[in-house]
C-alpha cells in the first residue's frame, strides 16, 4: 500500500480502539521495551501523545525512564521550518498543547540532536523493512537525520507490520526496532 492509503486505514483502526484497549496495549508495549538492549544508554527522546489522535500512551514508558534515572527529552515543533527543538523534561517543565493538540514544552534546557541516544518514534504504520508512515509532515525524518548514525530508533505501534510501504522516499529514515503489544520487530 501507499502512504496515503495507510494513513487512512490506520487512523480509522485507531479510532475504533476503546480507551481501555489503548491503555492495555500501551502498557504491553512498555513492558516489551524492557527486553531491548537499550538500557545502558542515558539520553532518551520520547513523544507526548496527541490523545485526540488516539496515539499510543507513552506515560508508562516515561515511568520506566524515570525509574531507571534516564535523561528524558521531549520536543517542540516549528511548523514554519519543519524543525524540532528538544528539551530536557524536568519537574519544572511546563507542557502546553500547540494548535495541533501536540503537548510540547513551553521552554527549558535545550538538548542538541547529536546527544540523543534512543528515540521513541510515533507512527501510524510500518513495514517489515523498518519504514514508517507518520502524518506526512517530515518532522521525524528531518530530526532523525540530524541524530548520530548509531542513535537507536524505536517505533511504537498498536498494530503489526505491513508487508511493504510502496512509496518510501530517499530521505525516509528507517527504524531499528518497532514494538507492538505482541511483538518486537528488529530491522
TrEMBL record:
GO terms for biological process: folic acid-containing compound biosynthetic process; tetrahydrofolate interconversion. The keyword Metal-binding applies. It is an enzyme of class 6 (ligase). It catalyses: (6S)-5-formyl-5,6,7,8-tetrahydrofolate + ATP = (6R)-5,10-methenyltetrahydrofolate + ADP + phosphate. Its EC number is 6.3.3.2. GO terms for molecular function: 5-formyltetrahydrofolate cyclo-ligase activity; ATP binding; metal ion binding. InterPro entries: FTHF_cligase, FTHF_cligase-like_sf, NagB/RpiA_transferase-like. Substrate binds at residues 50, 55. Its cofactor is Mg(2+). ATP binds at residues 3-7, 132-140. Keywords: ATP-binding, Ligase, Magnesium, Metal-binding, Nucleotide-binding. Belongs to the 5-formyltetrahydrofolate cyclo-ligase family. This is 5-formyltetrahydrofolate cyclo-ligase. It comes from Flavobacterium pygoscelis.
